[in-house]
From TrEMBL:
One BP term from GO: post-translational protein targeting to membrane, translocation
Keywords per UniProt: Membrane, Transmembrane, Transmembrane helix
Keyword Glycosyltransferase: no
Descriptive protein name: Pre protein translocase subunit Sec66-domain-containing protein
Biased composition (Basic and acidic residues): 171-194
Span list, region Disordered: 171-254
Residue ranges of the TM segments: 6-28
One cellular component term from this protein's GO annotations in UniProt: Sec62/Sec63 complex
Biased composition (Polar residues): 198-219
UniProt source species: Penicillium angulare
Cross-referenced PANTHER family: TRANSLOCATION PROTEIN SEC66
Annotated Basic residues bias: 245-254
Pfam family, one: Sec66
Length: 254
């Protein structure tokens, strides 16, 4: 009897310990799941997917009462392609953001909540891709293998059209800016021409021709002879004897 009581105490302790751990684990998982469900989604609402499901699940009886035709299959295929295009955009965004988020998580710059949101978005996109492939194969067998390639071409075409529209919207602004720059340059050029034409003349340009300095020529005997070159007239003054323009002054020899 004593041996059974001595064994019951450890077993009771183990049972309480295991029960406590199980309760704690269950509560922790429920709390974690509730917290994960309450986290804000990584991407906004998938509008293209909602439109596709709205067209796919229209009530045939309501359509017959309103006398509206059923949704054509071509419209459903186009809606599915738009849905696949949006999936490609989101997958590319996740791939470009994953490495940076992993580095920030290792450094402790971001919390676990953000990484949980990102992980949940990856899982949702995996399920979304599988669903799109299944829907495509339901319309045409084997279309699921090429639907994302076609959707990628559509997405690139949309990006090209968007860029062209942006460039066309800037044409008017570029024309106005160029016209203003052209007018400013012309105005500056004309101003420089006016300033150049109104530049005053220097005193050397306004003065008359400089006078020729007198030169001394050694005359005969002891007295010098002064010689002046006259340049004011059209021609030099001739000497009485028909000689050159030299004039001698001084006393002759006695």
């Amino acid at each position: 009897m004593v041996n059974w009581l001595s064994l019951a105490v450890p077993f009771a302790y183990l049972g309480i310990l295991i029960g406590s751990l199980a309760t704690f684990s269950s509560l922790y998982r429920k709390r974690k799941a509730h917290k994960a469900a309450s986290l804000e989604p990584w991407f906004p609402a998938h509008l293209q997917r909602d439109i596709y499901f709205s067209l796919l699940h229209l009530d045939p009886s309501a359509q017959s009462e309103k006398k509206t035709p059923a949704v054509p299959e071509s419209v459903l295929k186009a809606a599915l392609l738009r849905r696949a295009s949006e999936d490609i955009r989101r997958i590319l965004a996740l791939r470009s953001q994953k490495q940076a988020l992993a580095m920030l998580l290792q450094r402790g710059s971001i919390g676990d909540d953000l990484w949980q949101r990102f992980s949940r978005a990856e899982k949702e996109m995996e399920e979304e891709v599988k669903d799109v492939v299944a829907e495509a194969n339901a319309y045409v067998q084997g279309w699921g293998q090429t639907i994302f390639q076609s959707a990628n071409e559509m997405m690139q075409n949309d990006i090209y059209r968007q860029r062209m529209a942006e460039q066309q919207s800037k044409v008017t602004e570029e024309k106005e800016a160029w016209s203003q720059k052209k007018a400013t340059t012309k105005e500056q050029f004309m101003k420089e021409l006016e300033e150049g034409s109104e530049t005053p003349q220097t005193p050397a340009q306004k003065s008359s021709a400089p006078a020729t300095p007198a030169a001394t020529v050694q005359g005969s005997d002891d007295e010098p002879v002064l010689v002046e070159a006259e340049t004011s007239g059209n021609s030099a003054a001739a000497s009485p004897g028909g000689g050159g323009g030299k004039k001698k002054k001084g006393k002759g020899k006695k």
